[in-house]
Design a protein that fits this description.
Number of helices of chain A: 13
Number of domains of chain B: 1
Strand order of the largest sheet of chain A: 7-6-8-9-10-14-15
Helix content of chain B: over 70%
Order of helices and strands of chain A: HEHEHEHEHEHEHEHEHEHEHHHEEEEE
Order of helices and strands of chain B: HHHHEHHHHEHHH
Largest sheet of chain A: 7 strands, mixed
Largest sheet of chain B: 2 strands, antiparallel
Shape of chain B: globular
Helix content of chain A: 40-55%
Radius of gyration of chain B: 19 Å
CATH class of chain B: Mainly Alpha
Number of strands of chain B: 2
Structural class of chain B: mainly alpha
Strand content of chain B: under 5%
CATH superfamily of the largest domain in chain A: Response regulator
Oligomer: heterodimer
Distance between the termini of chain A: 103 Å
Number of helices of chain B: 11
Strand content of chain A: 15-25%
CATH architecture of chain B: Orthogonal Bundle
CATH class of the largest domain in chain A: Alpha Beta
CATH topology of chain B: ABC transporter involved in vitamin B12 uptake, BtuC
């Protein structure tokens, strides 16, 4: 009796151990591609991080269904940094020690910045779906960093380049509404124009939002001889300025941002809105991959996509695709593959430039024509006609 | 020189608008020593009424000056009714209360009216049709002054002359001056003080409504919040000129308009408000009761 019992116990231990061994063995054998996902998965900024995590899981599932990457299954290692720089170093260290091959993250610019050094030392390619701080790519300090979102100054760059290269204006007036968004854009635009030396900034001023009229500043623009105005701010003030310029029969071109790329602007400014340029996010609603990704998210998690979902989806795809194309998990090979091979994502066909910013992601230029915004080529000087 | 002239005219237009609103502040203050913070909202309601009426008329197929006339008339009547009602509801019951109480009541009224319009209409900006006619003869004067600017200047000038005549020559004007000087004494000699105060509110509201229609046509857009900034600026103009004084409010409004226009034109629009308020502080240091204000001796 006693023996039989201990025999059973022994047997069951044996079975359990065997089973455990069976389950554990694939992981222990390190035969997966480990995709680290770092970002805010809890706390008050969780809504920024969770969509990217969900996107990564969906992409991993998709790749695994097709046989994985390099013949191996994709495994997600998820770590939470709560968007706090002081926790992000921990998160990064954990991911490195767990053997992540590539990392999708982090979410917030501050946390990303502190974590990047650790990944750089470990030789791990890192790609963010949402960190927009221009420094991250432009400083050149983090060659291991890539992102699938346009940096904060991308829109200003588009506006400035459009004015100088497509519209070919030489004198530009820059106005802003003194707000964070408008002033930031205006300052970046001034920086780009002054650095390129292709045009001159003749007026740079902040206006008071909600003032009763803007005739003085409009007179000043007229006096300065500016051929184009770049305005950083929102549509109410933009429509006032445009209306007053057109009333004074000034043909000065007007270029603005996605605060103005709003149908209310056209409604309020009416005829004066015709010919106004405004940059705005690229339209992804008609991309079949985006539609499929959003549908997959809905059927798997039964939630709305949320912030940066498509950027996260594109980043996960780009990373896994690069490993596949590079046929290696080595840092240099992956980084090279990311810069060489374009990949089809919900954001369109993307690859990465030398600094790590995605080419083909971000903003397009639109123009008001017959009361609607239509996309105009942002970089083809031959097709965009200068309006007199 | 051309540039100077353009800025000068721009400042003059701006000043006229401030003046139309500032008169309402200064008249009410002169008569019951109350800063009517809801006054900017009366201006906004005038603009909204004109927008609604002109949209309806445009829908019915009318156009031209008749729309302007009808829209402005309805706006004036509507604003006057609001001004009258606000006084009856929010200020009259508090006439004997400490001076802070009607002030709080005025701020409350201002917030109430803003939110009321926001909920009843919309929080979005709405396009305002250009009701003012284009004057073709101005074309040859270059583009120094547009037709809407000229119309604003003329309307303001006419309104002020009429207001002066009303105060100097009519019986009601006399009653207003009497009430402003000494309310109790005026009551003793048979002036109907309640009626006089109501009239003051109505006249102030009429001027604000005119300002609302003019500036909304000039700017081309309105929302529920336009009264706030215009009100603050007009109030500043009234204080600058000496609150309680009618010529003072007009003078203060023009000075404010020019300061803002020239500061933007020659320095930077970043400093538009800075210059306006630095000027206000400087003038109040030298003349605490404003440019044309009477230094009031505390009545014992």
């Amino acid at each position: 009796m006693k023996i039989r019992l201990s025999g059973r116990v022994f047997l069951s231990w044996f079975i359990i151990a065997g089973l455990a061994g069976l389950f554990a063995s694939p992981a222990a054998a390190a035969d997966t591609i480990k995709l680290g996902v770092a970002g805010s998965h809890s706390g008050d900024l969780a809504s920024y991080g969770l969509p990217t995590k969900r996107a990564a899981e969906l992409v991993a599932k998709e790749f695994n269904a097709k046989g994985g990457v390099l013949g191996k299954k994709v495994e997600i290692l998820s770590e939470d940094d709560v968007c706090k720089p002081e926790l992000a170093t921990n998160t990064a260290t954990k991911l490195v020690s767990r053997g992540a091959h590539v990392v999708l993250g982090h979410i917030c610019s501050g946390a990303t910045k502190t974590a990047l050094g650790i990944y750089k030392d470990a030789g791990i390619v890192t790609m963010s779906s949402s960190a927009t701080n221009p420094e991250l790519t432009q400083s050149g300090k983090y060659p291991n960093f890539f992102r699938t979102i346009a940096s904060d100054d991308a829109q200003a760059k588009l506006d400035a380049d459009f004015a100088m290269d497509v519209l070919k204006v030489k004198k530009i007036a820059i106005l802003h509404d003194k707000g964070d968004y408008g002033k930031g854009l205006a300052e970046f635009a001034r920086g780009f124009i002054e650095a390129s030396k292709k045009a001159q900034v003749v007026v740079f001023e902040g206006i008071t939002p909600g003032a009763v009229d803007y005739s003085a500043v409009v007179n000043k623009i007229k006096q300065s001889g500016a051929e184009a105005v770049i305005y950083g701010g929102y549509h109410p003030e933009a429509s006032s300025i445009v209306i007053q310029m057109r009333k004074k029969k000034m043909g000065t071109l007007f270029i603005s941002d996605d605060g103005v790329k709003d149908d209310t602007f056209i409604k309020v400014a009416g005829k004066a809105a015709e010919g106004v340029y405004a940059s705005g996010p690229k339209d992804t609603t008609k991309n079949p991959l985006a539609i499929a990704a959003i549908a997959a998210n809905k059927s798997t998690y039964n939630t709305d996509p949320g912030a940066f979902f498509l950027n996260g989806y594109a980043a996960a795809q780009a990373l896994l695709n690069a490993i596949q194309k590079a046929k290696s998990t080595k840092y240099e090979d992956i980084a090279k593959a990311l810069r060489t091979y374009p990949v089809d994502t919900p954001l369109g066909k993307i690859k990465f430039d030398k600094r790590g910013d995605a080419i083909g992601v971000g903003f397009s230029m639109y123009q008001v024509r017959n009361g609607v915004y239509v996309e105009v080529p942002a970089a083809a000087p031959a097709t965009a006609k200068k309006k007199k | 020189m051309d540039y100077f002239l353009e800025l000068f005219l721009g400042g003059l237009t701006r000043g006229s608008i401030y003046a139309l609103i500032a008169l309402g502040y200064t008249m009410v203050y002169g008569i019951i020593e109350l800063i009517n913070f809801a006054h900017g909202e009366i201006y906004m309601i005038g603009a909204f009424t004109a927008l609604i009426v002109s949209s309806v008329l445009a829908f019915a197929g009318m156009s031209g000056p008749s729309v302007l006339f009808l829209a402005a008339s309805v706006a004036i009547i509507y604003s006057a009714a609001y001004g009258f009602t606000v006084e009856k509801i929010a200020y009259k019951p508090l006439r004997q209360a400490p001076r802070l109480s009607p002030l709080i009541s005025a701020i409350g009224m201002s917030i109430f009216l803003q939110n009321y319009v926001m909920l009843a209409q919309t929080s979005d900006f709405l396009p305002f049709p250009s009701l003012l006619p284009e004057l073709p003869f101005l074309e040859k004067y270059g583009l120094r002054i547009g037709s809407s600017e000229l119309i604003i200047l003329l309307t303001t000038a006419v309104s002020m002359v009429l207001l002066m005549l009303l105060i100097k020559l009519t019986k009601m004007g006399k009653a207003m001056r009497a009430t402003a000087q000494d309310r109790n004494m005026a009551m003793l000699v048979g002036v109907d003080v309640n009626r006089t105060i109501s009239y003051t509110f109505i006249i102030g509201s009429v001027l604000a409504a005119i300002g609302g229609v003019l500036i909304a046509s000039h700017i081309g857009r309105i929302n529920f919040y336009i009264g706030f900034i215009a009100g603050i600026k007009a109030f500043t103009a009234a204080v600058l000129g000496g609150i309680g004084s009618i010529p003072g409010a007009v003078l203060g409004a023009f000075i404010l308009g020019w300061t803002e226009s020239f500061a933007t034109g020659y320095v930077s629009s970043d400093y538009e408000d800075v210059f306006a308020f630095v000027l206000l502080v400087l003038i109040l240091i030298v003349r605490p009761s404003g440019l044309l204000g009477r230094s009031t001796v505390q009545k014992v």
